[in-house]
Amino acid sequence: MAFTYPRYAASPIPSRRDVPVVVVGGGLVGLTLALDLARQGIAVRLIDDDDTVSVGSRAICFSKRTLEIYDRLGLGGMFLEKGITWNRGKVFFRDRLIYTFDLLPEGGHHYPAFVNLQQYYAEAWLVEACAAAGVELCWRHRLTGLTSLNDGARLSINTPEGDYTLDAEWVLACDGARSQVRECLGLGFTGKVFNDRFLIADVEMEADFPTERWFWFDPPFHPGQSVLLHRQADNIWRIDFQLGPEADPEEERKPERVIPRIRAMIGERPFRLDWVSVYTFRCRRLERFRHGRILFAGDAAHQVSPFGARGGNGGVQDADNLAWKLAAHLRGEAAETLLDTYDAERIPAADENILHSTRATDFISPKGEAMRAFRDATLLLAARHPFARRLVNSGRLSTPAILHESPLNDPTAEPWSGSPPLGAPALDAPLTTAKGERVWLLSLLGGDFTLIVPTPLAEEEKTALAASGIKSLSIGEGGELRDEAGLFASRYGREGGCLFFRPDQHLASCFPAYDRKRVIALKRWICAGGRLAAESPESFA
Question: What is the rounded distance in angstroms from the CA atom of residue 209 to the CA atom of residue 193?
Fold first, then answer.
């Protein structure tokens, strides 16, 4: 069944003209951030100048980490049910298969490497979830001006009913690549805009191709360029055609230009054009994501090329990083210093994505004959020698950032052999309850500060931790949870130690023995901003 775009009624001018948090932009990132905050008890108003979800497939590849975030927000199962699950891909050079890859060769994970799903489905579900969670959704409210204040910001907003002003303690700018918030503040990007142009075509057709990512370099049906093929829900196939720097975007969007390209690729198979767009590669970001009480996320903060699925996934992970910090501050549980760690953590993550995106662009669109000869030789070598496949770059696919240099990583931690690095997102694993029920580790972590210990704590200890806002779980022999498959032990290198996770499920510390004062002090240190507030958690004991 084809997707029917919802139309949301234009919202009246609200009577309340001051709010704690306003999210500007009702796309994937803004809706995710608003939902996360609302589920943590924060009053949120979201404004968007449109009255529907995004048109066209746009961000279609939802990575394992993003799916885990949506699972925490109550939507993960919907992605699995509606989307197209895939782990494997193929790389072709001209008319030859060069190699096949598998992004998740091992089992024991709740979510796959990727689920392909058109962005409009995700946004429609998010709108419903936001409304149910109490987010105040204001459609056809267009930001026209913004002034930063010491204690927030004043927004000027245009609606079909007229204009009004709104004061907000915090403004979260999620209004995309052409951000009006960014424009109002006069902020520019650093980075590169590449000349090459690419055509996206969403094609509805019946096809028996495997559910894999297929990427061609210099295929016979589109010589001298590259092509990407992905399957989506509802028999929609996403095809990206490289066009070259001289392509006229307006001309290339026309059906009489698009249809012959698709015919050359798929033959006489019947199909219908669902959506067409032309884009250029952009690899750039704001110098800072936090500007006082105004914070930027997603494409409003950073932009990457679509090969690698790093744009939408990176934006959702921005929201995941920011929501718990702002919610903790607004609840009076964390200092404002904690908000400075958003820059400290998400700017390196954006730089990592930009680096991979730039390298992919250079490989896909080599500059000059020497670079093209190198690329082609690499592809031929990769057909016979696995080591050369690491040099092939059709878009390094999105992986979550490991926050190696995070100011929230415990400097007194005592890692053991095989333990994940501090700042890494939690690795999921199947566990068994005392009743014999199978559960997933990440669902148990949820969105709380969580301590994992190898043996059960006394009830008074669990109560004391809970009173400080810390959940505790015991995994191991005699614990509340059993690791029957041995995957928890293999992924965490357990040698009887303790693991401490932040609300966004990143590992903040590990140490050999339980110490209540140490654990509570560590949480206080994190909520104060970690190394931005004090060098060691010991000063918070």
Answer: 34
Report DSSP state, residue 239.
E
- For the CA atoms of 428, 433, 438, 439, the dihedral, rounded to the nearest 10 degrees, stands at -40
* pTM metric for this prediction: 0.96
Q: What is the pLDDT of residues 343-374, one digit of tens each?
A: 999 999 999 999 988 888 889 988 889 999 99
Phi, psi torsion values for 344, nearest 5 degrees: -60, -30
Q: What is the pLDDT of residues 6-43, one digit of tens each?
A: 999 999 999 999 999 999 999 999 999 999 999 999 99
Task: Give the count of beta carbons closer than 10 Å to the beta carbon of residue 495.
Answer: 12
Helices 459-467 and 516-527: crossing angle, nearest 10°? 10
SS (H, E, C) 36-50: HHHHCCCCEEEEECC
Distance, CA of 6 to CA of 504 (rounded, Å): 31
173 forms beta bridges with 24, 296
Q: Of 209, 205, 244, nearest to 223 (Cα)?
A: 244
| Residue 468 structure tokens | 């400080």
> If we measure between CA atoms, which residue out of 400, 399, 389 comes closest to residue 363?
389
Q: Which of 7, 209, 28, 9 is nearest to 118 (CA)?
A: 28
